[in-house]
Design a protein that fits this description.
CATH class of the largest domain: Mainly Alpha
Bound molecules: fe (ii) ion
Number of strands: 10
Helix content: 40-55%
CATH topology of the largest domain: Hypothetical protein af1432
Strand content: 15-25%
């Protein structure tokens, strides 16, 4: 899941969104085009007209006739065969035909390929399903037996229906298909590349982390009471950064910076670090130098931006009474202010040779009381929230 989370970072989401918007725009164009293409038509003409320019031509001819009877009177029976020719260059469907006969006389005896309704001299024809569609340049036939006094030879026609256009007829459809394939291929390649990069990044991360751990453990392990201190400070700093809304990459960086915050202690003598009693001013000054030494050590560590500042300024106080430079407020780099809270919290939450760790209540009191004094008030509040929510465990 975390791989997927990394694949869909802000940049990739932007490009995916652009691709989706383009795809959807083309889709809308295609739908509109198809709907527009499926427009209705209606043509009206007479059988005596020149039908050369009529897009949907209709003709009805009498194929045979005979004498017949209707209501005891002599009439003519005739077979009328009709043809519809689609010359529109497009497929048509849902067509209807209205034929105006020369006279209102007679009745339909039988029919084929459709149903008929004769009212006066108006004959309405609705084709059966199987002749409902007429492909381009094709014909459909129909017919009926009409008994009437005369045999009719001239008619007026009105044919209506709908043009059918298929999405394949539009270039935009093929653009969509090609784009979809391209998107799919690019997405798969991109995802595979991202996963590969992520695996490599995690591997590199692990090497860096383990190297740093080896180094900081060698510092923390010198004193029984500070064992694991740097690792815990790094964890707290990351939780604070996460609570403050930093992104995943920034949180990861702050973890590394915090891990190295006390690296300057490597040159401080054991006798001073482990001294159980009160320190003399000189000794205190010497220990405080771990910030300056750490800052110098990390000066060349340019691949981890902020590492130097984290080591150099993590003992600065928000009110300017810290060391080594007496910076105050927001002049202290943010990472150093976060480490300051995380570092002090771990000190208060751990046993020392001269005192036991503080209880939860006391610890929160210390954080509150030192808001704006030692700690950045916002970061202290953040830490209190993390403690209250149980995300940071306080020793009993
Ligand atoms: Fe420190």
């Amino acid at each position: 899941m975390s791989y997927i989370k990394n694949i869909f970072n802000k940049k990739s989401i932007f490009w995916i969104a652009c691709a989706v918007i383009l795809w959807m725009a083309l889709m809308v164009i295609l739908i509109v085009s198809v709907n527009k293409g499926n427009s209705s038509f209606s043509y009206k003409f007479k059988s005596t007209d020149d039908l050369k320019d009529v897009p949907v031509e209709v003709s009805i001819i009498v194929s045979q006739s005979w004498e017949d009877k209707m209501d005891d009177r002599n009439v003519m029976g005739a077979e009328y065969d009709g043809t519809v020719i689609n010359k529109t260059g497009k497929e048509i469907n849902d067509w209807r035909l209205t034929v105006t006969l020369p006279a209102a006389d007679g009745y339909i005896d039988s029919s084929w390929n459709g149903t008929y309704d004769l009212g006066g001299n108006i004959l309405n024809f609705v084709p059966d399903r199987y002749v409902y569609t007429i492909e381009k340049d094709s014909t459909r036939t129909f017919g009926f037996i009409l008994k009437s006094e005369y045999i009719y030879e001239t008619f007026e026609y009105e044919i209506s229906g709908k043009y059918v256009t298929y999405k394949e007829e539009y270039p935009v459809y093929w653009i969509l298909i090609v784009l979809s394939i391209v998107y799919f291929v690019v997405f798969v390649m991109f995802a595979a590349m991202q996963i590969k990069l992520e695996i490599r990044r995690r591997n590199d991360d692990e090497i860096i982390r383990q190297t740093m751990m080896m180094f900081v453990n060698s510092i923390d392990a010198r004193d029984e009471y500070t064992k694991g201190h740097s690792v815990r400070v790094a964890e707290y700093a990351q939780l604070i950064a996460g609570e403050m809304g930093f992104d995943q990459e920034e949180v990861r960086k702050i973890g590394y910076i915090a891990l190295l915050h006390d690296c300057g202690k490597i040159v401080i003598q054991d006798s001073l670090l482990k001294k159980p009693g009160k320190l003399t001013p000189d000794e205190r000054h010497e220990i405080q130098q771990h910030t300056v030494i750490g800052g110098k050590m990390l000066e060349g560590f340019t691949s981890l931006k902020g590492a130097r500042e984290g080591a150099l300024y993590h003992h600065e106080f928000y009110n300017g009474e810290g060391y080594p430079e007496g910076l105050n407020g927001k002049d202290i780099p943010l990472t150093a202010r976060i480490i300051c809270v995380a570092d002090s919290f771990d000190a208060m939450n751990s046993d020392r040779c001269y005192r036991k760790h503080l209880g939860k209540q006391r610890l929160i009191e210390e954080l509150v009381n030192n808001r704006g004094i030692q700690f950045d008030p916002d970061i202290a509040d953040c830490m209190i929230r993390l403690i209250d929510s149980g995300k940071i465990h306080v020793s009993d």
